[in-house]
Amino acid sequence: MWGAGFKWMFLIIGTTIGAGYASGRELWQFFGYESGLAILLFTLFFTISSYVIMDVSYKKQSSDYLPVLKDIVGPKLTNVYDIMIFLYLFTTTVVMIAGSGATGQAFRFSYWWGVVLIALGLIALFLKDINGLLAMNQIVLPLLLGGLIYILLLFIMDQELDVLADWHEQRNWTAAFPFTALNVLPLIAVLGAVGNKVRSKQEIVVAAIGSGLSLGTISFIYNSSLIQIADELLIYEIPLFAILKHYPFEILIFMSALLWFAIFTTAAAGILGIATRLQSIWNLPIWMLAAGMIAVMVPLTTLGFSTLISYIYPVYGILNLYVLSRLLLYPLWADKENREV
Question: Keyword Transmembrane: yes or no (predicted)?
């Protein structure tokens, strides 16, 4: 139970911690000053949402997101959100591929080297279907989470920061809603693809609580660190590098490698959601569908990493508020609909 629960927990975290999140850009976009309560609410909302999505997927024994989406948003809006999820996965995977290019640029490599590396890696990963993604997550994500927490705590101690200094001022608490909404839509796509592989409710509980607490804790520590270097964030494409500049070059190399793998796992999750949906239309191998989608995505990465996040993420965060409300209130309206049936 615990092992399987952690497997799904890492899938959830891997879907969420990508180029925008792990780099700090997405956190700074939504949170920043006076956001402690917002992050606490995000932790609660995310845990509930993850549980509901996994529970519906498990009951439906789904292999793609459409049956799960239909249950959550209702049949009338299914087609609308089907298109939205597809476009969301497409555009955010473009963001991940662009993030790989931006990471390469930080070390004076060509932007296109980073793009080609992630593109080829994604196609190779899906040669083993979904099992390759699950196996990679269980290796890479513990390293990523441990490394990120270590660097952030080291920074807080070195700078002698008081992370609770402005806890009495929480005017940004409403940011929890669009931020959670932004992150739950890809979960429907990814968890909807593995519903037929979940074996028990206990796995769902472990995955939902574990992922919510992990992301909530890291978000709070990360945001507290970024507040201290707010003036420098305008000149950094990737805010994490503004923190890493205080440490030896070896740490920069290590964390940059982990950041790239965070980008890679989220891109892989996006491709998984798209490919499993397309498989219900065209019965082709996932790697072949992945290759076709990536070929279309690569030219769009020239829009720029921070530009994509600045415009795409907030828009989707607002549009997905309806999905979030359905997830948080799922026990209430699901019971009512069942009684009416």
Answer: yes
